[in-house]
Design brief:
The chain is flat. The chain is an all-alpha fold and 129 residues long. Helix 1 packs across helix 2. The two termini are 23 Å apart. The longest helix is centred in the N-terminal third of the chain and has 55 residues. It is built from 3 helices and no strands.
Length: 129
């Protein structure tokens, strides 16, 4: 859970940037679509993190089934929502999709950065001290 401030900060910065870029590219609907895409990814990944942390605190054997369960639920819900939005003809669908893709890259990248820089440094200090 120590990584959450880093990944949430990166996601918040991206959400603001996505709204600005989406607004410049496609007006208000573009800003809303791009920001919503980033927001959906952030909430989805945050929920997964919280459920997996909870499962680990209860019994480490619950981590895999909880993680897989969250994966199935969130992608089913996202698929149903995307199908509904795509069928509505909403002009913000393309910026939404771009927001989702970039949101995944930024969350994952921030996680990788945190593990390789912050977490590894903490481990080195713990073993050296």
């Amino acid at each position: 859970m120590a990584h959450l401030p880093t990944v949430l900060g990166a996601s918040l910065a991206l959400l603001v940037l996505a709204a600005v870029v989406g607004g410049l590219a496609a007006g208000g609907v573009g800003a809303l679509g791009a920001a919503t895409g980033v927001g959906v990814v952030t909430v989805s990944y945050l929920l997964s993190t919280l459920v997996i942390a909870w499962a680990d605190s209860v019994d480490p054997r619950l981590v895999l089934p909880s993680g897989l369960g969250m994966y199935i639920v969130k992608f089913t819900v996202l698929g149903v929502v995307m199908a509904g939005v795509a069928g509505s003809g909403w002009a913000g669908l393309r910026p939404f999709g771009v927001g989702v893709m970039v949101g995944v890259v930024v969350w994952t990248g921030a996680n990788i950065w945190w593990v390789t820089r912050i977490h590894q440094a903490r481990l080195r200090r713990a073993t050296d001290g």
